[in-house]
Structures are given as C-alpha cells and as structure tokens.
C-alpha cells in the first residue's frame, strides 16, 4: 500500500511538471519577411456570394523559408461584403487560408460602383508586404423589369407622336443586368414600337420608341425572359383637334442648333402640344396650356412659359439665338395649309 501511494505521488508530480512546461512560441517575423498569395488573386463571383477558390497566403522570411505561427489579418479594402476569419495563424508550412470571402451587394458593372472591384488584403503587423486579392462582382439572376416613358404613365400625348420608353432589368437587390434580352409588344391602340426585340447595354439600360396610335388608351408590354412583364399606358389625343404650326428655323439654323424641326398644336380648349425633332434622331414631346390675349399668346409647358405674338397664320416667339445662345432671334411657326382654325 505504501509503495502504491509513492508511485502515485511521483506520477502526479510528473504530470504537474508537464502541464506547466513553457510553450515555445515562434519568434516574430523580421521586417524583411513577406506575405505572398498562394491562390488566384484575380477572381470573379456573384454579389452576396462567396468566391471560389478562397484566398490563401504564405508568410516567408528573407531567405524564403515558410514561417509557422505567424498571425495574419484579413481586411476588406473595398466593395463591402464580409470575410472570415478576420485573423488566423499560419500552419507548419507557413500558410493560412480564408474560410469564406463573401462579395458585397453592388455589382462591379454598376454606374454607382465606379467600376471598383472587391478588394481583400492579407497582411501581418510590422511587415510592409501584403497580399492583395481582387474580385469582380457580377449581378445576380434577373428578378424584375423597370420601365417608364418620357412622360408620366397614364399621361397624354398626340396620336402619331413618338414616346421614348426607358427600361432596365435588375437582380433582386437592384443591380442592373447588362446584355439582358428585352421585348416590346403593342397591346392596344394600333401603334408601333422600335425595336421590337433588343437587349440592355453594359449598364443594363435600353431605350425604345413607341409611336402612339389611334385616339384613346394605348398600351404597351415590356417583357424579359420569364419575369413578370411590365405594362405601360398612355392616352393618345386626336391630332385633328389641334391647329398645327410648323417651325421655320431662324438664320444660322440648323447648322449650329441641335434642333432640326418643330411643331406646335393649339386646341380650342386651350390645350397646347409641342413636338421637337433634334439632330441625330432625338425627339421631345410635351403638352401644356396656352392663352391668347388680343395678338399676344402665352405658352406654358410643364411650368416653362414663353410669350409671343399670334395671328391667323403665324405664331411668333422670341428665343435665344441658335447661333450663340445669347442674342434674341425670331422663331416663326407657320400655320399648316388646310388646318382648321
């Protein structure tokens, strides 16, 4: 019994000594040590998802020997998202790997992103060296269509006039998707649209031209793949309700002016219609109100007011010169032959 107690005491002392033995920590890396990537440094992934392969680095001394037990920090320098762990210790081979790097919510192709990629740094305190990983974030799958016209939905323009349609396709968190096929279909009103089929540009945008048809409600459908289509509606006015005046450009135009042609329509109820064609194929269309006081006329389109003179065959406005934008020129609109007063 006494022998057994003696042996047990010796074993307990031995275990106690082993448990308190000092842990050998590796010496800190010298300032000439380097942090190097051991995986791809240029990556591509989808917003809010983890990249593959995950970044990994090795820490080496000035002689190129891997250093185990060195603390490496991971920091997202741009793009948002998350990385884990934020800090890890190199293994026996001097390497350490990120468990997960999740890209941020903004796709690199978005105008708001400034085309800045997601950037991850791997570094060690006290070293000038660091490994840099960059990742291009792609949008998620198409989730919805955004579509509008140059005037508010349900507003009114004149039948036969062009209306610009603006559309974008986006993912679930609002990133616009480039090169996404989009189609346009006229539903009611017997108008037309150009193009019928197209795709979004590099920023996920596109523009189409809708020619309004018969007077009354005109409707249009914008579709992209399996997404729920978007419907647009506008009321077309009968052009026969207006007396039309065609623009005669002042001297020096159109060579120095973006305006190619224009027309103004006056309806008996005081409704004003203005359409302008620009160099390069652009158009603008607007409705408003007008009032006549003797030989004077006041035109108001969405709060933009112009004053001029008016008689049975001419509508004359004083506007800034198309030559220099400072001097005043006479802009004359001639009444179309045969139009009702």
Radius of gyration, in angstroms, nearest whole number: 36 Å
Unreliable residue runs: 1-19
Order of H and E elements: HEEEEEEEEEEEEEEEEEEEEEEEEEEE
Count the helices. How many? 1
* Binned strand content: over 45%
Biggest pleated-sheet summary: 8 strands, antiparallel, barrel
How many β-strands, per DSSP?
27
What is the CATH class designation of the largest domain?
A: Mainly Beta
Describe this structure in words.
The radius of gyration is 36 Å and the shape is elongated. The chain has 341 residues and is mostly beta strands. Helices cover 5% and strands 48% of the residues.
Structure at a glance:
This protein has an eight-stranded antiparallel barrel. A five-stranded mixed beta sheet has the order 2-10-9-4-6, with no helix packed on it. Strands 12-19-18-14-16 form a five-stranded mixed beta sheet, with no helix packed on it.
Keywords:
341 residues; mainly beta; Immunoglobulin-like; Lipocalin; 3 domains; eight-stranded antiparallel β-barrel; five-stranded mixed sheet
Write the layout of secondary structure elements.
Layout: H1 2-19, E1 34-37, E2 42-46, E3 56-60, E4 71-78, E5 82-84, E6 87-89, E7 95-97, E8 100-102, E9 118-123, E10 130-138, E11 144-149, E12 156-158, E13 162-170, E14 181-188, E15 192-194, E16 197-199, E17 205-211, E18 216-223, E19 230-237, E20 243-248, E21 259-266, E22 271-278, E23 283-293, E24 296-301, E25 304-310, E26 314-320, E27 328-335
Parallel strand pairs: 2-10, 12-19
Antiparallel strand pairs: 1-3, 3-7, 4-6, 4-9, 5-8, 9-10, 11-13, 13-17, 14-16, 14-18, 15-17, 18-19, 20-21, 20-27, 21-22, 22-23, 23-24, 24-25, 25-26, 26-27
């Amino acid at each position: 019994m006494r022998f057994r107690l003696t042996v047990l005491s010796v074993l307990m002392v031995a275990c106690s000594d082993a448990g308190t033995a000092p842990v050998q920590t590796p010496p800190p890396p010298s300032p000439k040590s380097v942090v190097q990537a051991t995986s791809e440094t240029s990556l591509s992934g989808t917003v809010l998802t983890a990249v593959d392969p995950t970044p990994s680095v090795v820490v080496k001394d000035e002689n190129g020997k891997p250093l185990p037990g060195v603390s490496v920090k991971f920091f997202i320098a741009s793009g948002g998202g998350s990385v884990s762990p934020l800090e890890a210790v190199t293994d026996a081979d001097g390497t350490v790997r990120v468990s997960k790097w999740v890209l941020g919510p903004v796709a690199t192709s978005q105008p708001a992103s400034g085309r800045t990629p997601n950037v991850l740094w791997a570094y060690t305190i006290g070293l000038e060296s660091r490994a840099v990983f960059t990742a291009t974030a792609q949008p998620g799958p198409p989730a919805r269509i955004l579509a509008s016209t140059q005037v508010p939905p349900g507003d009114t323009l004149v039948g036969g006039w062009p209306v610009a349609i603006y559309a974008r396709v986006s993912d679930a968190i609002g990133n616009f998707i480039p090169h996404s096929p989009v189609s346009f279909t006229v539903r009611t009103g017997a108008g037309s649209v150009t193009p019928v089929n197209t795709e979004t540009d590099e920023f996920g945008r596109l523009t189409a031209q809708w020619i309004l048809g018969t007077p009354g409600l005109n409707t249009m459908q914008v579709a992209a793949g399996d997404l729920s289509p978007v419907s647009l509606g506008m009321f077309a006015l009968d052009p026969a309700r207006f007396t039309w005046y065609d623009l005669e450009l002042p001297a020096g135009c159109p060579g120095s002016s973006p305006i190619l042609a224009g027309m103004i329509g006056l309806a008996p109820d005081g409704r004003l219609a203005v359409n302008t064609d620009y160099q390069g194929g652009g158009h603008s269309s607007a409705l408003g109100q007008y009032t006549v006081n003797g030989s004077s006329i006041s035109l108001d389109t969405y709060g933009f007011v112009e004053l001029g003179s008016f008689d049975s065959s001419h509508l004359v406005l004083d506007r800034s010169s198309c030559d220099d934008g400072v001097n005043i020129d006479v802009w004359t609109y001639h009444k179309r032959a045969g139009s009702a007063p």
